């Protein structure tokens, strides 16, 4: 065994001594190549910092190249930061790139706030000197000032939060600068938060908006200036990535203080909106108009014994339910489009689920349920896009679908609660994979088949188009 070991060691030494080292080129015609000539950072919020971008430095020759100098032209004061081969700094010397090999560098940027309201450009460059050759890589970042909401409180059993509207306060978020929320922005009891038209709210990680018991949320967008609520990850990869933040959480409210959401786009969360009677039975309602809830990994709209009225609402592409009702409540939906073609993973749940009970410790508790939907669409990739889980007859339970396009083989117009509905026909959406739930074709069964009486109650579609005459089904008039 000792003899074999000595032979192996000798072979290694012989190989090492015979191995030819590559020469370091001094040829001025040999230059570096790069993975890009410009490292572009999409919009970066001031003070927060960007994600890390990669720049690869290539040596395409048969000899090693010595980079005699790498320098961030802005020096130590540059807003960009560079890391090369595990070393951070603004200036580097004598970095060897082996023959037919590459060197990795990593870049990020932190942008200081200023008084500009619109996005602005921050630029710098990296200098490379090799064999007397000077080469530059441009660095470009779009900066955006913002107002930051950072959680500073925690109660056991609840997520971290910051109170943004305390008791008896009426706070307005305006559209002058976007809001970036870390943790939950909380509306306290008897507080009110108004989010004005055109406001953009970016939410980081597992954060969200939260109305505590008896608080009030009012989102007041317009057709031309909707309120947009989405993740703070602005790189193109994250444009349509679901589950990037948690939810809008609305607890029970006080009488006369309805939650109101007008012209909002709420996207890429775990749950779009969760409205629930939590501490006491809600004495207010959630009123949603002209609003889009899209691309949520869990549920678009989740309601627990609540009162919800929704007109011109679109819920599309959710990993579980589009609209789930638990423990009863009262719901009235007119001209809504629910289209669930989730493709990120396997979905086995229906788009719309209605339940009127909860089971705890072997005991079943039932709640009254009234659900009405008119001139609407419920469609998706599943065979059954409408399901119920109802218990007993000790409470009033009623659901009515009037002039709706439904995908289900369990119900028909002969079934109780269905009136002049269309079953299992394709609504012909424009492009559900790109979240366009307009009706694409005049031959769609949704065109001109609505109930005029229901249409007169919602005379304009989500984009302000008139529904004069016989209306189409769903949130958009063809």
Structure characterization notes:
With 478 residues, the chain is mainly beta. It has 2 domains: 33-143, Sandwich (Immunoglobulin-like); 146-218 and 241-394. Helix content is 5%, strand content 48%. It is built from 2 helices and 38 strands. It has helices spanning 2-18, 452-457, and strands at residues 33-34, 38-45, 53-59, 65-72, 80-84, 87-89, 91-97, 101-109, 120-130, 133-144, 147-150, 161-165, 170-173, 179-187, 192-196, 200-211, 216-220, 227-231, 247-250, 259-262, 264-267, 271-276, 286-296, 299-318, 323-334, 337-340, 352-355, 357-360, 363-366, 369-374, 377-380, 386-389, 397-402, 405-406, 418-419, 422-423, 429-431, 436-439. The strands form 5 sheets. The chain has a 7-stranded parallel β-barrel. It has a 5-stranded antiparallel beta sheet with strand order 1-3-8-5-6, with no helix packed on it. Strand 37 and strand 38 (436-439) form a beta hairpin. It is elongated and about 90 Å long. The model is unreliable at 12-20 (pLDDT under 50).
